[in-house]
Amino acid sequence: MTRGRKENDKGSGRIQAMGGDTLQLVVDYVKQETLQPLKGLGRFIVFGVAGSVALGIGLVILTVGFLRLLQGETGSTFTGNWSWAPYLICTVFVLAVASAAVAAISRGQGKRQVERHKETA
Fold first, then answer.
1. Would you say the pTM of this structure is higher than 0.70?
2. Which sequence spans correspond to the domains of the chain?
C-alpha cells in the first residue's frame, strides 16, 4: 500500500511541476505578446505627439512671420481699408496646411484599409 502511494505522490508531483511550468510559460507568453508591443506603442505615441507639437509650434512661428512680412514689406498695399487682408491671407494659409494634413492622413488610412482587405481576400 505504501509503494502505491509513493508512486501516486510522484505522479502528482510531476503534474504539479508541469502545471507550474505551463503557468510560467503562459505568463512569459502574455508578457511577450502584450507588454513588449505596448512599450513599442508607447514610444511611437510619445514621438508622434512630440513631432506634432514641434510641427504646430513651427507652423505658428511661420504664420506670424508671414503675417509680419505681408504687413511690413508690401508697402502701402495693405493699409487703410485693406489692413485686414494679411490676416485673411494667413488664415487661408493655415487652413490650407491643415486640410493638406487631413488629406494626407485620410489617404494613409485608405491605403491601410485596402491592404487589409487584400490580405483577407
1. no
2. 2-120
